[in-house]
Design a protein that fits this description.
five-stranded mixed sheet; 18 helices
Length: 572
């Protein structure tokens, strides 16, 4: 403290009188002679006397050893100071306050059932004086302490043996000072605290701060470090010539403050919660996360690294699995595409071969009709049959021609067509299949003859694919609920075709993929029907959507724009 307050530095001499442990009468004459000779002719700016014995020695001999030198007396109890009498005007006093009553109040708070008080003290004069003060204070609180026992001048082994037989429920122990024991052994009082407290089944209390740090449980303590700081500041001001610290100035006594050693109390099973909020806690055991934070940090880091590695490996495995599934799906799609390409190549040959018998059928029908006309046969039913055969053969031939044109990459012709009429012809092809599957087919065409720019065969293909898709969706539906509804209507600068079924509906995870090529939810599906529908509709500048029905099933909605009022056929 002096070094920090006086940057130019000081020269310090230290003399240990040790009168507390050895006694003033024995040492005083020799010490006086030694110090008088030692400091003869020396310039001394300040004398600091620490403790009762040093203060009394300085008061008696300062004129002979350090004449006219100011003296700073510190670390003396205010009770002793009041009894010591008048000090010279060149002395400045820094006393401290011992509150035995406050310490006993702390004892009573922590051990409310204890009625027996044990006082540990030494055989030196100062030891006995402190023990007397404890007894006098305890007697003033006789409503609490039914008996007071003094253990004076005992050695450490004997004190340990006696402490081991005490019960914390009934007995409290207050330690004053022990500078000497009956065997002549000398101590600094704080030196006995740890040997006694470490083995005692009861808490030991005291009024010095170093008692608590050495293992005492609690007390209203006088802090030696605080005393050193105050003394150093006053000494620095006196050496700097501050006149405020002259003429017998006395500093306010340093207060006694409640301090508790939490680790000791918890070891003895005594709760510290009864102490007031102004009590300072020492040695509070740290929670495990504070005590071992480095180890915990290392463990958490290792666990985090392991978790990150595991997550990275799982993510890598997931990506690899997804890549394997994608590759397998692509292989399956390529295989299916290869089969479809093969079928397409065969279809060209089949279309060519089928075209010939269809031509023969038309020729035979025409020949039969001519023969009936030449023979004058007027069988109306037979003529209607021939008419139907001719019409269906022409339609089949038209499909074959379009198929061959498609396979040969020929242009598709778009022209204004009657939307309802085109769909009616396609619906007629669907009805036999609906009857075979036990499905009620309802068709309502109500666009009022509206025309769209379209290829008739492809437009009919859209209805056929949607109708067959709806029928497949109702494969497991109860027969009484199997119903397929085909409806057309004029809306928003165009026409709509709505195909509704009462099947299983669209799975939640399939809505976005429904019109993708090769995607299917049917066991025997190719995944091309709805994809072809979308391709045809988009080629006609329209749109197709699917939506779940409220009572089950699906609505497929196709929208196409109206055909312009006057338009020549367009090839694409």
């Amino acid at each position: 403290m002096l070094d920090s307050e006086l940057p130019l530095g000081i020269e310090t001499f230290l003399d240990t009188l040790d009168g507390m442990r050895f006694g003033a009468d024995l040492l005083t004459p020799e010490l006086f002679a030694l110090l008088q000779k030692k400091y003869a002719g020396q310039r001394i700016d300040l004398v600091i006397a620490i403790g009762n014995y040093a203060a009394e020695f300085a008061r008696t001999h300062h004129n002979a050893i350090w004449p006219d030198t100011p003296v700073l007396v510190t670390s003396v109890p205010d009770v002793w100071l009041r009894k010591a009498g008048q000090f010279p005007s060149t002395f400045v006093i820094v006393p401290y306050h011992i509150e035995i009553g406050k310490t006993l109040a702390i004892v009573e708070t922590l051990q409310p059932t204890a009625k027996h008080l044990v006082i540990i003290g030494g055989s030196a004069e100062v030891d006995r004086r402190f023990s007397d003060e404890i007894v006098a204070t305890a007697e003033k609180r006789n409503e609490r302490w039914t008996s007071v026992e003094r253990w004076e001048g005992l050695g450490v082994p004997e004190l340990r043996n006696r402490l081991a037989r005490l019960d914390k429920r009934h007995t409290a122990v207050l330690y004053g000072t022990q500078y000497r024991d009956h065997g002549g052994r000398r101590y600094f009082p704080f030196e006995l605290v740890r040997p006694l407290a470490d083995h005692a089944p009861v808490p030991i209390y005291g009024w010095y701060a170093n008692y608590v740090t050495q293992g005492a449980a609690a007390g209203a303590v006088y802090d030696l470090e605080e005393n050193g700081r105050v003394t150093g500041k006053i000494a620095a001001r006196m050496l700097s010539g501050d006149t405020a610290w002259r003429n017998g100035a006395v500093s306010p006594p340093l207060p006694a403050r409640c301090v508790a050693n939490i680790a000791v109390l918890r070891r003895l099973g005594i709760s510290e919660q009864s102490l007031g909020p102004d009590c300072k806690w020492l040695n509070v055991p740290n929670p495990p996360f504070r005590e071992y934070w480095r180890e915990i940090a290392v463990v958490l880091f290792v666990m985090g690294a392991q978790a990150f590695t595991i997550l990275a490996m799982l993510e890598q495995r997931r990506k690899r699995r997804r890549a394997e599934l994608d590759a397998a799906q692509r292989r399956a799609d390529l295989a299916r595409a290869s089969r479809i390409a093969t079928v397409g190549e065969l279809s060209a040959s089949i279309a060519h071969e089928v075209g010939q018998p269809l031509g023969a059928i038309l020729s035979n029908v025409d020949a039969a009709d001519l023969m009936m006309q030449s023979a004058g046969d007027s069988n109306i039913e037979l003529r209607e049959i021939l008419t139907d055969v001719r019409r269906d053969a022409l339609r089949a031939n038209d499909v074959i021609v379009r198929l061959r044109a498609l396979l040969q990459k020929q242009a598709i012709t778009f022209m204004p067509v009657n939307f309802d009429a085109t769909l009616e012809r396609a619906a007629a092809l669907v009805r036999p299949e609906a009857r075979r599957r036990g499905i009620v087919l309802e068709a309502f065409f109500s666009t009022g003859g509206a025309q769209v720019l379209a290829d008739q065969v492809q437009l009919q293909q859209v209805l056929l694919n949607l109708a067959l898709n709806g029928m497949d969706a109702m494969e497991n539906t109860e027969y009484q609920n199997r119903q397929l509804r085909i409806e057309s209507r004029a809306v928003n600068d165009g026409v709509e075709l709505v195909v509704s079924d009462r099947g299983v509906g669209i799975p939640d995870d399939s809505v976005d993929k429904l019109f993708e090529a090769f995607y299917t939810t049917k066991e025997r599906g190719t995944g091309l029907g709805l994809s072809i529908v979308r391709s045809i509709v988009e080629a006609h500048r329209g749109s197709v959507t699917a939506r779940r029905r409220r009572r089950g099933g699906t609505d497929f909605v196709v929208w196409l724009p109206f055909a312009p009022s006057s338009l020549d056929p367009v090839s694409q």
